[in-house]
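Pasting two entries for a bug report.
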Amino acid sequence: MHPVIAKTFGGLSTQYYFRHLILGALLPALVLFMLSQGGHHIQIGMIVFFVINTLLYPYSRFVYESIIHFLIGENIFLVNAVLMLFVKLMTMAICWSAAIFIAPVGLAYLYFHHSKAND
């Protein structure tokens, strides 16, 4: 595997990547199901966009979680479970829908992090 690809796309643990890949695939699956039930035509461009965002979602989520960890640290907040689930779903939807824009930041970070570790 080329070193750049190994340092970027291979930068996340396999368990982390596949966990978020599965969670990220739920949103487009739900949207496609709703579109098919409504009798709407699904365009190829939409499917390509869904696939790209789903594959990049784990890197987008990595950026989000890194920022939140930096801001919050190891603090624990006790909140209503319904509110927390709603916030979690909204952050997942935002990270998935903007993955094509957010993920390059995570990939760049992983590349520089793993390059520095190898030096």
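Entry 2 (this is the one that rendered wrong in the viewer):
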Amino acid sequence: MLISEVNYLGKLRTACTHLKSGETIISDAPTDNNGKGEAFSPTDILATSLASCAITIIGIYCSKNNIRFNHCQARVSKFMGSNPRKVDKISIAMKISDNNWDEQTLHKIIKIARSCPVELTLKNNVQIDYKFN
């Protein structure tokens, strides 16, 4: 299924357009790889998509199970490796405590978050570290 179009804007910058909605994300090469770092780098988008996917999966689960889900914030860290240059590790600190879930619900939510499609795609190639609080 065709989902996006990516156009080079020059100076190591791209415009990534979601074809269904027309929304656009700008990417820029990071400062440690010849860029200006004025927008998400492609690897920043990769790491950020992991947190976004986990939060989305939590939202779907809560909606289907009539569980209140009012707040979630994820702070994403990315660690690059070399030889080859690639994302070695993604760390996500996810604040979900403001939802006042009991221990059993919290355990289910964490399990659901860790089963998102982005994590399942990355998990054998990238170390993924979550901290839920």
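Dev reply: Rendering is fixed now. As a check, the viewer should reflect this: The two ends are 37 Å apart (CA to CA).
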